[in-house]
Amino acid sequence: MAKTKHKTQKVVRVADTVKLYWQQIRQYKISFFIMLIFIPISAVLLDTIVPYYLSRAIGSLAQAGSPELSQFIINATIAAMGGVILNIIGFQVMIRHESSVRKNLLHDTMQQLLAKDASFFANQKIGSLTSKFIDFMNGHAELQDLFIIRSLNLGIGIITGVILISFQAPVLSMIILGLLMFLILQIKISRNLRSHLRDQRKKLINEINGMSADTITNNFTVKTFAKERYEIKEIDKLSDKFKKAYRADFRWLSIESSSRIALMNIVQIVAILIIASMLAENVIELGIAIFALTYLQRLAGNLFVLGEILNGYDRIFLRTTPMAEILMEKPQLIDVPNAKKLSVTQGAIELQNITYAYADNKDSKVLQNLSLSIPPNNKVGLIGTSGAGKTTITKLLLRFDDVNDGKILIDEQDIAKVTQASLRENIAYVPQEPLLFHRSLRENIAYARPGATDQEVYEAAVKAYALEFIEALPQGLDTIVGERGVKLSGGQRQRVAIARAILKNAPILILDEATSALDSDSEKLIQYALAKLMQGRTSIVIAHRLSTIAKLDRIVVLDNGQIIEDGTHKQLIDKNGIYAKLWKHQSGGFLEDNQAEED
């Protein structure tokens, strides 16, 4: 019973893959149908019709003065010329078609991936996801080539040959058809028996790809903990599982192939005996006998190829269905129908009775009935121990997730009812650990505003106090920063992120531990830049270093998802509550917090 359920799920996934590819192919239906017709017909003409007429011509040589000889040769020549012409046209169209479809497929697949929720990427191994993406992109051309060039050519060629033989040797054609039916049944049974092994291989391949990429990406951590042997052992464990599944799968395949070869040899022997008997009794012409024998030889090879073709489909779908499954899943966070663009004229922020819990832990509320009003141009600091809900508020404000209850307003507009793009265009966000693209410093800074001039990029770097280290680099702003910005220090990456925020010039600013990676001297410089950046903007600043937020308009103290104190630095010190205690107990300018992770 479990097998039947599993099999149905498999069919659905393969159908989804084909459906996704067809959505791209149908945009170029004319070129698709041209190659769908021209390439198989050219193959039939060259591989079946030409040999048929040449066999008939050879047979007519045995009959002195046969008037059909010249006609057979003319027919073979016409078929050959037609086949070559159709083949050239078909493949030229295929080249243009595949390149056009690939371009659209890349655009739409990337668009759908980037539309996924932030939680989706948090739960994915990026290496494995990248591998799935590449396999899906390559799968279209492989699948199309396998279907048109091999499957259709083979199927139409076999059918045409059987029809030609049936005119003079119907018994022989019936034997061939019986062989075909038996082999198709054998392959189907074998594939059903191997289906769970193929799925197991697919799962293990994705796990191996994901773990390998994860290990390589975190190579610094591996080296600092001297865990090279550990990582290799973990990959070896998966490799051993894959080896067992691979051997079991191909053990079945070898049995299937061997039995198929034996069956085809028996059928060929029987067919030769039948043809010899029919020739002896003058039941068929010599030309037909020659064609039948050559056709059987080619059929034997083609039927063996049939198994390879079906295994080819398995290999393609093995690699492409994982991404198809991802693309078929609808994102949870979508714009409401007819969502309007957010219009920010003042920058007032209102959190009204919001409650939030992570999807995988609904019973544990991160924020509980929290309300917070931030007037336009107000600069508010959020503090609290790890897990208090500070970063959660900023992520909800950016709508990386939706609140469970309550709502968030910007200039009296519910952010759940405006487009996500317009919301984020109006917010400049500097995270605690900014990641940069494997591109130049110029491109990374200008990412906030791709049309920015070199002068504007330069000025943003100056204001972020990033120009000094940039000019010290051999290629300056044209320096490639490495994957995720690994060629730069943590402080340098944060200054680049601050420069990007300066260039964005958004009305709302969020600084999530934006100076955490800076040394004391650098922080003093950057604080002035941030103060200028916050002028005329509604700003939310998260910090463990209390000196970072002491001069802000307000300081909000969070604990267990609730606001426990709210006021200016002086007011909170005078109140002698939690904030005052934190201020007195800070060490080296930081909150004493034994927890290493920010919520």
Task: Explain what this protein looks like in three dimensions.
- The structure is a single chain.
- The chain has 599 residues and is α/β, with parallel strands linked by helices.
- The protein has a domain at 2-328: ABC transporter transmembrane region fold (Up-down Bundle).
- Helices cover 64% and strands 9% of the residues.
- It contains 18 helices and ten strands.
- The protein has helices at residues 2-25, 29-61, 68-114, 118-122, 126-166, 170-217, 219-224, 228-280, 286-328, 390-397, 420-425, 441-446, 454-463, 467-472, 490-504, 520-534, 569-575, 578-585; strands at 349-356, 367-374, 379-383, 405-410, 413-414, 427-430, 508-512, 538-542, 554-559, 562-567.
- The strands form two sheets. The chain has a six-stranded mixed beta sheet, sandwiched between helices. Strands 2-1-4-5 form a four-stranded antiparallel beta sheet, with helices on one face.
- Helix 15 (490-504) runs parallel beside helix 16 and helix 17 (569-575) packs across helix 18.
- Mean pLDDT is 83; it is low at 1-12 and 587-599.
